[in-house]
Specification:
Largest sheet: 5 strands, parallel
CATH class of the largest domain: Alpha Beta
Structural class: alpha/beta
Low-confidence stretches: 253-258
Number of helices: 11
Distance between the termini: 16 Å
Strand content: 15-25%
Number of strands: 11
Mean pLDDT: 88
CATH architecture of the largest domain: 3-Layer(aba) Sandwich
């Protein structure tokens, strides 16, 4: 349940448009909704300012459908990550107002909110085209949290002139997310060139000695550049969510901490 819907329920009760019983029934599933195979956290939006996000990996299409439909009842835009195209064919027809985005492999339910909740732009940068699916997961997450996002893809260290060509856009951003595989050098370069916090996302892109992204992860963790924070391998969602929280407009409405 999002804060706006909760406020509407309480105002309706105070104004006499809804009975106490009706309001209690609407609030009865506020902490979570029990689906037997999942306890859907319908309270997360009120606690953290962002609804629960469904990890599609390891779940059946039927489970994803049930969870998304339960979350969507709260009124906020919700989504599932790591959803295969085959699974999406079964999910989208069963979830109203949903659509599948094949590059980030996400099912989104509802409209993208207006980009008015952040102080500035979040720049999402990828080293290579192969890193774009992870970068897109980060960009989508930030956009669904109400942020403006600039995408700058395929500007890795093998051709740094490509990065420099976008220096004005990157310098104007509030926060920079950098997704890179192989040796994972790009976040250090970006952090050394621009006076902005960098969220580094190691990807599993690379040859044998990259060890599925471990080489990039270690390279980013060992960066000599100040202001670079690192999330887990392929964790575009985590990077996008962290960037959105750091970019939150302090003059806007804030979710109270319980």
């Amino acid at each position: 349940m999002d804060p706006q819907r909760l406020r509407a329920l309480l105002e309706a009760a105070v104004a006499g448009r809804a009975t106490v019983e009706e309001t209690m029934r609407a609030l009865s599933e506020l902490p979570f909704r029990d689906l037997e195979f999942a306890h859907v956290d319908t309270h997360r939006h009120l606690r953290t300012g962002f609804p629960e996000v469904v990890l599609g990996e390891g779940k059946t299409p039927e489970q994803i459908v049930a969870i998304l439909n339960a979350l969507a009842q709260g009124g906020a835009t919700v989504f599932a990550t790591r959803v295969s195209a085959a699974a999406a064919q079964a999910i989208v027809p069963a979830v109203p107002r949903s659509r599948y985005l094949p590059v980030p492999r996400a099912v989104v339910v509802g409209e993208v909110p207006a980009p008015d909740r952040g102080r500035g732009v979040i720049a999402v940068v990828s080293a290579g085209t192969s890193d774009v699916p992870v970068a897109e997961e980060a960009a989508l997450t930030a956009e669904l949290a109400g942020n403006r996002v600039e995408r700058i893809y395929d500007v890795g260290v093998a051709g740094l002139h490509r990065l420099i060509a976008h220096r004005e856009t990157i310098a104007a951003a509030e926060i920079i997310i950098v997704a890179a595989g192989m040796e994972g050098a790009l976040p250090s370069v970006v952090g050394g060139l621009f006076a902005r916090p960098v969220i580094a996302v190691p990807t599993s892109v690379g040859y044998g000695a990259s060890f599925g992204g471990l080489a990039a992860l270690l390279g980013m963790l060992n960066s000599c550049v100040a202001g670079v924070a690192v999330v887990n391998i392929d964790n575009g969602f985590g990077a996008g969510r962290l960037a959105a929280m750091l970019n939150r407009d302090r003059n806007g409405e804030r979710t109270p901490t319980p």
